[in-house]
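Attaching the record inline, Q. Sequence:
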Amino acid sequence: MDVPFRPLITISIMLATIMQVLDTTIANVALPHMQGSLSATQYQISWVLTSYILASALLTLPVGWLSGRYGRKKVLVISIIGFVVASILCGMASSISQMVVFRIIQGCSGAAMIPLSQSTLLDINPKEKHGSAMALWGMGIMIGPILGPTLGGYLTEFYNWRWVFLINIPIGLLALIGVIAFMPDSERQHRPFDGFGFITLSVMIACIQLILDRGEQVGWFASKEILFYVAMIGSSLWMYSIHTWQTKHPFLSPEIFLDRNMLTSLFFIFFVGIILLASMALLPPYMQNLMGYPVLDVGLLMAPRGMGVMVSMIIVGKLTDRMDARILIFFGMSCTMASLYAMTFFSTFVPASTLIWTGVLQGFGLGFIFVPLSTVAYSTLEPRLRAEAASLFSLVRNLGSSVGISIVMVMLTRNLQINHAYLAEYITATSLGISWQQVPASVLADAAGVLALLDAEITRQALTIAYIDDFKLMMWVVIAATPLVLLFKNAPKAAQPAAKAAS
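Structure, as predicted:
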């Protein structure tokens, strides 16, 4: 297989991928600045993130059909143009309503970039380079969320929050030029569009996201609103299943779910999504609120995690085509579990060196998981199903991230209250060894201030324990997911027929 300009194609589509993934997290640290500038409430400003994630998730679904109908190149070109234009509009927004609308457009435009970049890399590379190609692709996927807060914090601190979006202009233009000039077009597949299947799946995904976003505010399953969303998810899934069974041209090809490696990979990537962004959501506030690090120092302490990812992907990219993928994934899960176990011993006085090496180890482990997982997922799948499967793979990863963030934040709030109540029970004059006769009158005169300081310290200790409980939860998630490795077929042997078919 000899594809002209392969390195330039790779650079172009990776620039588009990094740009899209970066925007899922780069705006996080800029939200307080946006809130004041756009005169938004706390709930309204959260939709700057939610609207992008939801729009991207929904429009990921039809990417396989669109690329088959109009060609990957055309779809990718339109996506990049739409994303850059939407980024400019986001940087110029003057109200929260404008920002949310522009973020929706941005999410819709960027939905195709990740699945199309993955399927393109698999198609333009021969079988012996699939591992290296997925290592490069995975590097973009994994580095984006890790570097996003660091870059966002730097741009917000030294320039303006609007540059969080405007930074996409040069990246997008370079990607656009490269795709137009060098990327070959794909074969067209004139398959009818299953509108009913798309609508039912979209309703289901939208309701899942609304549950995650609204649950904590309305009291979760004690709320009629949440119960309504649950009923919509159940009915949508039921209708989609019956419809798929009866129609000749279902929205998602059933052959995808009949492939053991792909089906197992979907479960696996869901758990990886949980760990990847859940830890990213926990560590910055932990370091800022409990350890007193400024935002720039937090970004610097998080950066080595990205270095761990990069190093592991360089190594595993060379090993994927030579070793059993199951061994590599198991090793990655072990590293990730070891990192989370070490994090369960964190305190408010944990040294910076510990923060760094646990982050590096976790990034190293995630890299060893992601690359062979992305390779083995498609090893036994027919090439014609790659674009469709890549869309589903990306969607499940994003759903895992949303679920993971929601779970750890809910558990954090709940455990904070429980721990605070538990610790407060033991704070008495007797337990503290205080004799009120020995307390100076000046202190007693400011009893309210003393109690406030004592309550603040109890809250601090309760919050520390709550964070540790979240780290333990993620560790057990990794342990529970590890046995799925046994369900994979041997990737190197299975990859051969698939790769031959692709070439």
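Confidence is low (pLDDT under 50) at residues 491-503. The chain is about 80% helix and 0% strand.

More tomorrow.
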